[in-house]
Amino acid sequence: MAEITAQMVKDLRERTNAGMMDCKKALAESGGDFEKAAEWLRKKGISKAEGKAGRVAAEGIVTSYIHGGRIGVIVEVNCETDFVARNPDFQDLAKEVAMQIAAANPKYVRREEVPSDAMDKEKEIQRELLKQQGKPEAMLEKILVGKMEKYYEGVCLVDQLWVKDDKKKVGEMINERAAKIGEKVSVRRFVRYEVGEGIEKKKDDLAAEVAKTLGQA
Question: Phi then psi for 162, rounded to 5 degrees?
Answer without folding.
Answer: -70, 130
